[in-house]
Specification:
The structure is a homodimer of 382-residue chains. With 382 residues, the first copy, chain A, is α/β, with parallel strands linked by helices. In chain A, 47% of the residues lie in helices and 11% in strands. In chain A, β2, α2 and β3 form a beta-alpha-beta unit. In chain A, α4 packs across α7 and α5 crosses α7. The longest helix of chain A is centred in the middle third of the chain and has 15 residues. The radius of gyration of chain A is 20 Å and the shape is globular. About 1% of the residues of chain A have low confidence. Chains A and B meet through α10 and α17 of A and α10 and α17 of B. Chains A, B: It is found in: Cytoplasm. Chains A, B: One of its GO terms (cellular component) is cytoplasm.
Chain lengths: 382, 382
């Protein structure tokens, strides 16, 4: 009985995710599938369109055995840090094999990881974005570009696997749709990318996505308001208006004078400006939209550098849901892991370990109207 | 040519205010009437129902010659501090006589002021509200109660007059309506209190207030959204959710452990709670609703103690509007006053002198959708 790990956002959970799980089950019918899932704020610096409990239920229904939440400190991060955090958690969860989608499943990700292991995080001296500098460094080491989002993430997982000595067997799965951002369908007519689905949802073409998502996702989409940056923009704007430069500077990911840009560019915008208007105004050659969107999450949730460091020093396993098979596996994890396994918010942990995630949940709840952590226990599906 | 001062909020400007101006003109047809008016946040800890420019226009149209803005640091304050700030400003504006409404215009406010001059601000040791303790101290000194809102304010003006050696001649005008909070009409059928008018407006009985306000106010009410705490509650809630105890503690008017109450009581509220629900939850014997509402403004606008002290040390005259007669008077004030006369926001003053008022305006603009300070110059009416 092997333990398979998947790193996911499920934003929202769609047929491509279902297909991935089917592939796992086909290869390992009795595997325990553990998913490390982003919570309510995601890798690319945006709120999840559906809350973490809704997405957990979807994943469990589709056959996942355990869902643990990636702490916000790990998941609202560039690919390499995101991967390090996720692999760290899956390692503690006893994962043996890591499945992930890739545009080029034929790549030898282990070899690529070994070759690029000397690439380290600080590209701040270049007059280009972090992502561009990173890709250039990869190109220099490998002799060819890795420039599609899933391949890049796969490489980041592989690098984290080596760096953390997690010893995962890597299983890249060929992505069966054209690209991350297209609605072009290949082979299977009922698969589209998450971003394509979100695009349709934003355009309120809800019925159009029915083909591409499982029934449970479609029901949630029909019933719940879909959350986006638009819901948080008034709060972010207010936060920037009332924050001193000094305060913005103390937040995670600010630096290099970005605090001035953040405030100044807002001041020039009209009162009816949107989140995207602000992002465009702050954008420069140096910063990608994604970097700035992550910064926006840090401002919105008031993430300090100290808090991120604290989670890095003292990571934890936050359980969101499990199946019967998952429960058996969790009993083992409880004994083997040196990280605390957290099943609910308590008076103590909301002021210490979970402080940041708890606050993020409270902010998210301002848009959904549904509390995210208080009075929640992990979902169980048998 | 005398200079008459009035301290006002004009929330909104109504026939009672008009009547007060008529009384002044009747007694002093050629007087220059200078009004020190609260800006967008008011004495009782609430946003103004119409913005400061709209209210300034109403006042000028009704015959006021100069409107200067009471800095937020002076006006979102208990009566005695509010009065001190306002009298300080009117003194610099060359005011000679102070007109104010009173439930008992027959009182000798000068004498009352002299008798109660030894009453000073700190009542924090009593297990009762500041206001109650203050009234009790007044009762002890005078031998009778002063417990109606306008008499209390009048006494506060009189005390400030003595303390600041402003030498204003005090002119109390008998209020011609029953009480501050009633819609009961006496003598003149077209006068109602501001709070009664706001109550009707909140109940969306807009047409019902037509009788009680000048045409210009009625037009503004019909055209502009009426602002209340409801508009800022999502922002306040968000601010409390994301602020650390330490940060709340650094704000003006917090202390005595109030920061814990502010956060804890919010946590217990449902997601659909209103501003009033929160206020009720935080309320205790020790704190009046008004005190807590002022605290809410401090949290919303992020008013620090240091900022309030700064304004107290370096006051200024912020001009909102003037008539031709007002302009002549302003030329004198410019020469005689040692306070800066500010006519617009500049790169410099928005980071120094006007920092707090500018921020308050930006927060207010999040509800109105209309910038409050940038690109505004004083209104002129001839």
């Amino acid at each position: 009985m092997t333990v398979v790990g998947i790193i996911a956002e499920y934003n929202p959970f769609h047929n491509g995710h279902l297909y991935q799980l089917e592939q796992v089950r086909e290869q390992f019918p009795t595997a325990t599938i553990v998913v490390a899932m982003s919570g309510n704020f995601l890798e690319r610096g945006e709120p999840a369109c559906l809350d973490k409990w809704t997405r957990t239920r979807q994943a469990l229904t589709a056959g996942v055995d355990v869902v643990v939440e990636l702490p916000l400190a790990f998941c609202v991060q560039p690919a390499d840090r995101f991967a390090l955090g996720a692999v760290k958690i899956l390692k503690e969860m006893g994962v043996e094999q890591l499945f992930f989608g890739a545009e080029h499943a034929e790549y030898d990700f282990n070899l690529m990881a070994e070759k690029t292991l000397n690439i380290h995080g600080d590209f701040s001296k270049y007059n280009e974005s972090y992502a561009a500098a990173y890709q250039r460094a990869v190109y220099t080491q490998l002799g060819y570009s890795v420039d599609t989002p899933n391949d890049l993430l796969g490489l980041a997982y592989a690098r984290a696997n080596v760096r953390l000595n997690a010893r995962f067997r890597l299983v890249p799965l060929q992505r069966i749709i054209a690209g991350h951002h297209d609605l072009i369908l290949q082979k299977k007519q009922n698969i589209a990318s998450a971003s394509a689905i979100r695009k349709q949802l934003q355009a309120r073409k809800i019925k159009d996505v029915k083909t591409y998502v499982p029934e449970i996702t479609y029901k949630a989409i029909m019933k719940q308001p879909l959350i986006s940056w638009n819901d948080f923009w008034p709060l972010l704007r207010y936060q920037i208006e009332t924050s001193s430069l000094q305060k913005i500077r103390s937040l995670y990911g600010v630096g290099e004078g970005l605090e001035y840009r953040v405030k100044q560019q807002l001041e020039g915008l009209p009162e009816d400006a949107t989140f995207d208007d602000w992002l465009k105004a702050v954008k420069s050659k140096r910063y990608t939209y994604t970097r700035l969107a992550r910064l926006a999450v840090a401002i919105l949730v008031q993430v300090t550098s100290g808090e991120v460091e604290e989670v890095e020093k003292n990571p934890y396993l936050r359980l969101l849901g499990f199946s019967f098979r998952g429960q058996c596996h969790l009993n083992k994890v409880k004994k083997s892991s040196c990280y605390p396994l957290i099943t609910k918010i308590t008076k103590d942990n909301k002021k210490s370990t979970l402080q940041l995630d708890y606050r993020a949940g409270n902010v998210y709840a301002l848009a959904t109207g549904v509390k995210q952590d208080l009075r929640h226990i992990p979902l169980r599906i048998h």
